[in-house]
Specification:
The protein is 16% helix and 30% strand. It has 744 residues and is of the alpha+beta class. The protein has four domains: 67 residues, no CATH class; 210 residues; 224 residues, Alpha/Beta hydrolase fold, catalytic domain (Rossmann fold, 3-Layer(aba) Sandwich); 121 residues, no CATH class. The termini are far apart.
Length: 744
């Protein structure tokens, strides 16, 4: 979207009063910020605290954290704070503070103007076309230090044994002693005398009477009232993933505590006990502004020493709004450098209707290239309003192990790990799961749909490349040799991709049961609309449900700038994953699969298996390198008729789509003239390019206690395995068509 168009739209939108976050109709461009999630605690039976040994090992700290950043909970007599990850940017240099001193008055009067700041702050490279001079461009983080990885707090814990205050702090990265130092403030009595904090912090405090510095195996406690000092024992353990600093501070009666981390001798980089950071890219706004102002008095956590000694234990319950959730990744995927630690974040939004006891629909949102897990939370609140709140749906945004992983290689494994974590932690409606994303995330929406087609009921990719880079819609012999700077007349390569091998078109047969609606600007300067049109032509050729929304006044960043997703959300929520689809069509393209393993793997050996869907459990290729095994099967235990394929069209504007746009697509309708076939305990399948296949007879609704009749056509000898929850049966089939009867 060009600057003059955007500035005109902003002027129009600001003259209109918008409604609340849960509004039924939304306006383009402007919007209130994504609401931060809250939580509540439920008291549980106390658990006797374990005795703590000052050794830097964490096994004797047995309390459980919440798994959500910016939260405090008491568990097993430990006060456990979980910090936001990758937020150790320190103080603002004054630029943000000066700007916010002017703009906050506007956002208080009209909260929808937040969106204008969010777009500017999330567009430091000018990609969105936001009309702002260079001096008014802002980074996505508020702190202006280089991120201090070794001072990036992961969690802080406090316990009390009656003689000392025991402290454990862990960081995301630590490979040697001497990389991290803590500065701790302690409040022991009433009063508001302002005092200087020592150790070269540049801070002042009206709350603390004591300050301590902990570095390596040494702790120093200073009484701020008279300057007297006491040393105490501490230890640092950088081994493995412990990344722990442990100390016993000789103050048994502290009422409240504040904890900071930094590289030794450098400015404070990270502050603990921040429980109200607004939803931003790095969740560091309050931290950066407080450090700039020279005080962290707002970030003290209350300590009830007697309750901790008694083993106080609570359950923390997430409440509606946006949270940073955290999970423990796998060792092979993790490295102690930068953002690659073993603890990883993802964004999660709970709607106002969220009830943890009830199964809730799920929306997976995949960020654009250059984005993070929290890019949408910070800059496109409509994603959570339209895809989440208005449909009573949880929205989850994975990081993808980088800003430009394209959700392949390590990025694909990250999505699979997040998927496993959310299904372990939350009660989800597994028939109502959806995927959407913009740009690289649009590519990811197609990617996840074709590789995991039984995960989703529908998809909404926006500005989506059909490969890692782009496809122009052309293809002819010799095109790949006509290269200039990574581009040919057919394909554009991005971030080390293999665009021909990674083309979704190779696997579109897999989305028979995943209707796809695409948002795309006809003026897209990065992803040619010609390739996107060809992609949807293929879906229509296959007879699959699809919609293509072509926006005639938008370029590549049009969808996230306009931030209207309501119509696409309504389309997706028309569909549910079939419990037992009568027909399953599946392709396992080995060049595609090998490229997904190789590209952006960082040299990590990966072995993805995209050979399963619904009741197809496995499909093994004859040729594991260049093969393309295909499966087309029907269970006759689920009588079905072929649907009528009906063209769809719409535009030029509609509720939640300010337009102008043109929509074309294909819908399925029940054929009233077709007679439903009789139910049979039988199946048929046509298989090519495969040496083995496994099908689940229970999920096909086939009865195990009566004979099952199968008719299989294969172009090569095939090992067919029938399985259910109790047993399996293997049948060796020759090439050609074989009809057989068997029992399970």
């Amino acid at each position: 979207m060009r600057p003059f168009i955007l500035s005109s739209l902003i002027a129009v939108c600001l003259s209109t009063t918008a409604t609340a976050f849960a509004q039924e109709v939304t306006l383009p461009v402007i919007g209130t910020e994504t609401p931060r999630g809250t939580g509540s605690t439920t008291a549980l039976a106390p658990v006797v605290p374990t005795a703590k040994t000052l050794d830097g090992l964490v096994a004797d700290w047995t309390g459980a954290g919440t798994g959500f950043a910016g939260t405090i909970v008491r568990s097993h007599g430990e006060l456990v704070y979980t910090d936001h990850l990758f937020d150790a940017f320190g103080a603002d240099d004054g630029k943000d503070a000066e700007r916010l001193s002017r703009s906050d008055a506007y956002t208080e009067t009209m909260p929808e103007t937040y969106r204008l700041e969010a777009l500017a702050q999330n567009d430091p490279a000018g990609q969105f076309g936001i009309p702002a001079p260079e001096q008014l461009r802002y980074e996505q983080n508020y702190g202006d230090l280089d991120r201090a990885d070794t001072a990036d707090l992961r969690e802080v814990r406090v316990a009390a044994d009656g003689t000392a205050l025991q402290l454990l702090a862990r960081t995301t990265t630590m490979t040697a002693q001497g990389q991290t130092a803590l500065v701790v403030l302690l409040d022991t009595e009433a009063g508001d005398t302002e005092r200087d904090v020592p150790f070269g912090t540049g801070l002042k405090t009206k709350r603390a009477e004591y300050a301590a510095q902990i570095a390596g195996d040494t702790g120093t406690l200073v009484d701020l009232r008279d300057g007297s000092q006491t040393t105490f024992a501490a230890t640092t353990n950088p081994d493995g993933w412990a990344n722990a600093i442990e100390a016993a501070i000789p103050l048994a009666d502290a009422r409240a505590i504040a904890v900071t981390a930094r590289k030794p001798g450098e400015p404070i980089a990270n502050v603990a006990f921040r429980t109200a950071e607004p939803v931003r890219e790095n969740f560091d706004k309050h931290q950066a502004l407080a450090l700039h102002a020279g005080t962290i008095d707002d970030f003290f956590a209350a300590i009830d020493v007697s309750a901790l000694q008694a083993g106080a234990t609570e359950r923390w319950n997430p409440r509606p709004g946006y949270h940073e959730a955290q999970f423990t990744s796998t060792e092979p995927l993790s490295r102690e450098t930068g953002l690659e630690g073993i603890v990883q974040p993802y964004g999660i939004y709970f709607p106002e209707s969220y009830d943890p006891s009830k199964a809730t629909p799920l929306q997976l949102w995949l960020h654009w290239r250059g984005g993070t897990a929290h890019s949408a939370g910070a800059a496109t609140p409509g994603v959570f309003r339209d895809l989440g709140e208005r449909h009573d749906t949880i929205v989850v945004s994975p990081r993808g192990r980088g800003t430009s992983s394209w959700y392949v290689g390590r990025g694909h494994l990250d999505v699979e790990e997040v998927w496993a974590d959310i299904h372990d932690r939350f009660k989800l409606d597994e028939r109502r799961r959806y995927v959407a994303g913009h740009s690289m995330g649009g590519f990811g929406s197609f990617l996840m749909s074709v590789t995991h087609p039984d995960w989703f009921a529908a998809a909404l990719p926006a500005s989506p490349p059909s490969t890692q880079g782009a496809w122009t819609g052309l293809d002819f012999e010799g095109c790949d040799e006509m290269q200039f700077d990574g581009t040919s007349p057919c394909y554009t390569e991005a971030n080390g991709g293999d665009p021909r091998a990674q083309h979704h078109r190779r696997l579109l047969e897999n989305v028979r049961h995943v209707p796809i609606a695409t948002y795309h600007g006809t003026a897209d300067e990065l992803v040619p609309s010609t390739g996107v049109v060809r992609q949807h032509e293929r879906l229509t050729e296959l007879g699959y449900r699809n919609r293509l929304y072509l926006f005639h006044a938008q370029e590549h960043f049009g969808p996230p700038v306009w931030d209207q997703w309501g119509e696409g959300a309504r389309y997706m929520h028309r569909f549910a994953i079939p419990e037992t689809p009568a027909r399953v069509t599946h392709v396992r393209d080995m060049p595609f699969e090998r490229a997904t393993e190789r590209v952006n793997s960082g040299g990590m050996p990966l072995d993805f298996d995209f050979g399963r869907q619904h009741w197809l459990r496995a499909l093994e290729p004859v040729d594991a390198v260049t093969g393309r095994p295909t499966f087309d099967g029907v269970t006759k235990a689920v009588p079905a008729t072929e649907p009528l394929k009906v063209p769809e069209a719409g535009g030029p504007a509609s509720t939640d789509n300010a337009g102008p746009y043109t929509m074309t697509g294909l819908a399925w309708e029940q054929n009233p003239l077709a007679a439903l076939p009789a139910k049979q305990n039988a199946f048929e399948a046509t298989i090519a390019g495969a040496r083995a296949a496994t099908i689940d007879t229970d999920r096909m609704a086939l009865a195990a206690k009566v004979p099952i009749t199968g008719k299989v056509t294969t172009d090569a000898p095939l090992t067919l395995t029938l399985v259910n929850d109790r047993k399996s049966r293997t049948i060796e089939l020759p090439a050609g068509t074989t009809t057989f009867t068997t029992r399970m």
